[in-house]
UniProtKB/TrEMBL annotation:
It comes from the Eukaryota. Belongs to the cytochrome P450 family. One of its GO terms (molecular function) is oxidoreductase activity, acting on paired donors, with incorporation or reduction of molecular oxygen. Heme binds at C427. Keywords: Heme, Iron, Metal-binding, Monooxygenase, Oxidoreductase, Signal. Its cofactor is heme. This is Cytochrome P450.
């Protein structure tokens, strides 16, 4: 019997099973274009706890609710680290953000501040006027397309919508007409997400990896993105410092809050919270908050168009509760029981982050009777867990009714369904994300019927996924809105 550095007993010496790999690269070649699917197949053969090797990095892959529970609840603290990655490290001013920073006293302080100041229910509610204003403008532009009988590009529109909401919440001013309007911001954010999802050679091959990344052009790609983001954030911060009259409404936006925290820290003599922290947190919010919401909206509509009986049922419910109203309000949404099941089912079938955000063990520990060393990379295959046939009946089918009379939700307590992760590093943006997704989707379904263009049938709808940190609909969704107003 041994103890780990936290004094917890380790009663096993048994090593997890390891699928055979190749010399040097280990199992890297087995990840393929959709790693969550490849790893799920590998787990079918080798079990829910596997130790693979990505280059020189031993990596624990967990693929059952039971294993997720051990990592996110029973031994949460041992599994709360983050691996250092070249790209995310550069993008977050050397990991002085919250999402990618290793588990430490710094992370605990930062998380405490952010949860209280930025992500509290009160703060999320205070942004209700912003959500409503942006959503109204969005609905008007869809109505204009409906009047012309034009198909709309749901991916692009949803991105612009979530970007506009997060932009206004973060900076207190509109996305439209800003420095980042047009395709500039979308390109920048997508390049940033792609880089965060890139397997940099330096992360898996010590010494030679750095050279490989330099020769492959990764260094210059990362430098370009960092420079653009930094220039943009600098200008936003400067404007906030120079003027307090920029905001259209009287609310504190997120930059205001972060600058206030910065001032308070400087006043108290603390030195750890610098302008780089302010910028790095803003990067987290954009990386975490924009694409994710847009991706959920697109998948939800895709599934609804593919399943017309579900579409009818959910529209009937929304139109019943908001009958005669110009728009569905956030208060109305509490009544929409079936609608909420539709969103849950979307999050189950289409995990935005199918492998969550990678973790790292912070001490020697255990996993379902196996011994796990300190410093091991940990991948939780939330996608495989959400489709585990031992837990879910007909797991590949979109059946919102499965959540009828079920207490299972996505807040990190039900380990068979963890789209936002769980444990101490659970997504702090759940309330912000759900408020945005629910309001917009409810109104899209209330006001419009959605038809496939060019006589396409629901069976012909392409469901292919693309992957790069997030998992999105690969073939853009185009639908013709029919105004119901
Ligand atoms: C549908 C929308 C969203 C999904 C599916 C999602 C999913 C996730 C997941 C899976 C994690 C990793 C959890 C873990 O390691 O166990 C995470 C972390 C995080 N998310 Fe989200 N997220 C969403 C929206 C947001 C929003 C709107 C924000 C902010 C405005 C946000 C900010 C963050 C941050 C800062 C972290 C890192 C937390 C930490 O490491 O302490 N997310 N999110």
């Amino acid at each position: 019997l041994t103890k780990n550095k936290r004094g917890r007993s380790l009663i096993t010496q048994k090593q997890p099973p390891s699928p055979p790999g190749l010399p040097i690269i280990g199992n890297l070649h087995q990840l393929g274009a959709l790693p969550h699917r490849s790893l799920a197949r590998l787990a079918e053969r080798h079990g829910p706890v596997m130790l693979i090797r990505l280059g020189f990095e031993p990596t624990l892959v967990l693929s059952s609710a039971e294993a997720a529970k051990e990592a996110l609840k029973t031994r949460d603290v041992d599994y709360s680290g983050r691996p250092i990655s070249f790209c995310s490290g550069k993008l977050t001013y050397n990991n002085v953000d919250m999402a990618f920073t290793p588990y430490s006293e710094y992370w605990r302080e930062m998380r405490k501040i952010c949860v209280v100041e930025l992500f509290s229910l009160k703060r999320v509610q205070s942004f209700q006027p912003v959500r409503t204003e942006v959503m109204d403008a969005f609905i008007q532009s869809v109505a204009a397309s409906a009047a012309e009988g034009e198909a709309v590009h749901l991916g692009e529109m949803s991105f612009e919508l979530t970007a506009s909401i997060i932009f206004k919440i973060a900076f207190g001013r509109s996305f439209k007409g800003s420095l980042m309007d047009g395709k500039g911001f979308e390109k920048l954010l997508h390049e940033t997400t792609a880089l965060v999802g890139t397997f940099a050679a330096a992360d898996f091959f010590p010494y030679v990896g750095w050279m490989v990344d330099k020769l492959s052009g990764l260094h210059s790609r990362v430098d370009r993105v960092c420079e653009r983001f930094d220039g943009f954030l600098e200008s936003v911060i400067r404007e906030h410092l120079n003027s307090d009259k920029l905001k259209d409404d009287g609310h504190e936006d997120i930059v205001d809050v972060l600058l206030r925290i910065h001032r308070e820290h400087v006043r108290s003599g603390a030195t750890w919270f610098t302008m780089n922290n302010v910028k790095a947190i803003l990067i987290d919010i954009f990386l975490g908050g924009v694409d994710t919401g847009a991706i959920v909206l697109v998948w939800a509509l895709t599934e609804l168009v593919k399943n017309p009986e579900v579409m009818k049922k959910v529209q009937d419910e929304i139109r019943h509760w908001a009958s005669g109203k110009e728009r569905v309000t956030e208060e109305d949404i509490d009544n929409l029981k079936y609608f909420k099941m539709v969103i849950k089912e979307t999050l189950r079938v289409h995990l935005v982050g199918p492998l969550l955000v990678q973790k790292k063990t912070t001490a020697k520990t255990q996993m379902l009777g196996y011994l796990i060393q300190e410093g091991v990379r940990v991948v939780i295959n939330a996608w495989a867990i959400a489709r585990d046939p031992k837990v879910w009946d007909q797991p590949d089918k979109f059946i919102p009714e499965r959540f009828n009379d079920s207490l299972v939700d996505y807040r990190g307590q039900h380990f068979e369904f963890i789209p936002f992760g769980g444990g101490r590093r659970i997504c702090p943006g759940i309330n912000m994300a759900m408020a945005m997704i629910e309001l917009v989707l409810a109104n899209m379904l209330h006001r419009f019927d959605w038809k496939l263009p060019d006589g396409m049938t629901p069976e012909e709808l392409d469901m292919e996924e693309g992957f790069g940190f997030t998992s999105f609909k690969k073939v853009p969704l185009k639908l013709v809105p029919v105004d119901n107003y």
